[in-house]
Amino acid sequence: MSYDEAKLTCISTLEGHKFRIWHCAWSPKGTLLASCGEDKTIHIWGPEDHASTKGPWALRSVLTDGHDRSIRHVAWSPCGNYLASSSFDGTTVIWSRKDKVDFESLTTLEGHESEVKCSAWSPSGSFLASCSRDKTTLIWGIDFDEDESDAFSCNEVLQAHSQDIKRVVWHPNLDVLVSCSYDDKIKIYKEDGFDWIVNATLTSHTSTVWSVDFNSDGSRLASVSEDKTLKIWNKFDSGNDLKIGFDNDEPTWKCVCTIDGDHQRGIYDVSWNKLTDLIATACADNGVRIYKESTSENSNESPNFELIHCNREAHNQDVNAISWNPAHPELLATASDDSIIKIWCFS
Amino acid sequence: MLNSELELENKNPIVYEVSKNRKNKKTDKDINDSVEVPIDEEEIFDYIRDIHDPEHPLSLEQLNVVSLENIRVKDSCVSVRFTPTIPHCSLATLIGLAIKTKLLRSLPLHFKIDVSITPGSHSSEKPINKQLADKERVAAALENKELQRSVDECLHP
């Protein structure tokens, strides 16, 4: 497919939230979009015509009374039957799906000492990670076998960062967790027996790392920062041909590409399309940008990424979140301070 | 914590003369006029010059914490540098937050507002600037009732 004539077209402008929207997330099948923000609600959106995700989208339900303060982040479980919402009120609420678009609050996870910034379900469905301004990441074990409301127990308190933790993201198919922080660092964790340990610390950004996302097989990671750069990290397994990182048996992560100069302000979110490999960024300069890797011979060591699309007026204010639809790879959702969600088609 | 210090940090601050020049406030005619008057440095200064210092009954202009020459406006980006009265001022973050809040409330929503410390005027310049630039932490701070009250006290003396 050639991207020379590709266009980013807005197919739906979704209004309903009051005030700033902090985040939006597609359901695993890509048929619903959940959003959250300063108005303390979660909105669930779906296609107006149930058969077509490419037509206009509409509001399907609103979840209220879960939180006392702004909802910063919302995450779907891999099965699509649960939602986790994280709030400045210090809690994560688990919502259980009762009907197609109807959810009810199942339980409230308490444990953080201040604002919860993000939560994420592991691909196996065994764990939920949550991170906070209190500098900790909690790992909750999940067991839905008995009483649903008792399904979550805190297994681990990770204190690897020295500052506010902004985002946690799981590897696409392994129980490997990544977190990024106000301390400018990215940490990778894995399970070691009954404990979780820091496997790698990725240092290169010069300011807050707002978000990270893996590529489809988890061999690469994209990160975005207040320092206005997008960085691509490559995993080098022990015994790699390039002889990078031979000091132990653990894989080594190395920054192989820094995209500097395109973004005019801090970058708040990044989404790596698992089906097309395109990378999209959400920036405080109101812009949405799309990158594609341009093939080169030594692509592992020093890949090139080309800016194939830039819309500096995607929103009227900061773009806070961006996400490729997991099932319909041409669909992209963005959420902004302007209290609007847009669904775009890139083709 | 902010109000707990009984001892004033800077007991005898230098008081500067305030400028009498005020940009003409928008008249009804301007508002009705379809021609939009662009926002300039003087207008920004007018919004923030009367903010009160958290520890003295003086304005930020009287203490020379804010001044017209430390304001830049370009397109829809406003940048304000403020100068704490002493280099160890523990109230610098609160002052910056008050300036930011005032501008967030005064300016059209699409404006980008950057508030930072005048280079070299504070011992913790870098961490304070980072804190003020982090809109997530600013948003969380402004949801904190106690902090909101401290900010409001600076804005409504």
How would you describe this structure to a colleague?
The complex is a heterodimer of chains A (347) and B (157). Chain A is an all-beta fold. Helix content of chain A is 0%, strand content 53%. Chain A has no helices and 28 strands. In chain A, the strands form seven sheets. Chain A has a four-stranded antiparallel beta sheet with strand order 1-28-27-26, with no helix packed on it. In chain A, strands 2-3-4-5 form a four-stranded antiparallel beta sheet, with no helix packed on it. In chain A, a hairpin with a 5-residue loop joins strand 6 and strand 7. Chain B is an alpha+beta fold and 157 residues long. Helices cover 36% and strands 10% of the residues of chain B. Chain B is built from six helices and three strands; from the N terminus they run H-H-E-E-H-E-H-H-H. A three-stranded mixed beta sheet of chain B has the order 1-2-3. In chain B, a hairpin with a 2-residue loop joins strand 1 and strand 2. In chain B, helix 3 runs parallel beside helix 4 and helix 3 crosses helix 6. Classes of the chains: A mainly beta (347), B alpha+beta (157). Chains A and B meet through loops of A and helix 5 of B.
Q: What profile does the largest beta sheet of chain A have?
A: 4 strands, antiparallel
Instruction: Give the CA-CA distance, first to last residue of chain B.
Output: 20 Å
Count of helix runs of chain B? 6
Specify which chain pair forms the largest interface: A-B, 23 and 12 residues
Multimerization status: heterodimer
Number of strands of chain B: 3
Order of strands across the main sheet of chain A: 1-28-27-26
Helix-strand category of chain B: alpha+beta
Order of helices and strands of chain A: EEEEEEEEEEEEEEEEEEEEEEEEEEEE
Averaging pLDDT over every residue of chain A, what do you get? 93
Question: What is the strand and helix layout of this fold?
Answer:
The complex is a heterodimer of chains A (347) and B (157).
Chain A: E1 8-15, E2 21-26, E3 33-37, E4 42-47, E5 57-63, E6 71-76, E7 82-87, E8 92-97, E9 103-109, E10 116-121, E11 127-132, E12 137-142, E13 152-158, E14 165-170, E15 176-181, E16 185-192, E17 195-203, E18 209-214, E19 220-225, E20 230-236, E21 252-259, E22 267-272, E23 279-283, E24 288-294, E25 304-311, E26 319-324, E27 331-336, E28 340-346
Antiparallel strand pairs in A: 1-28, 2-3, 3-4, 4-5, 6-7, 7-8, 8-9, 10-11, 11-12, 12-13, 14-15, 15-16, 16-17, 18-19, 19-20, 20-21, 22-23, 23-24, 24-25, 26-27, 27-28
Chain B: H1 28-32, H2 41-48, E1 71-74, E2 77-82, H3 92-106, E3 112-117, H4 125-133, H5 135-142, H6 145-155
Parallel strand pairs in B: 2-3
Antiparallel strand pairs in B: 1-2
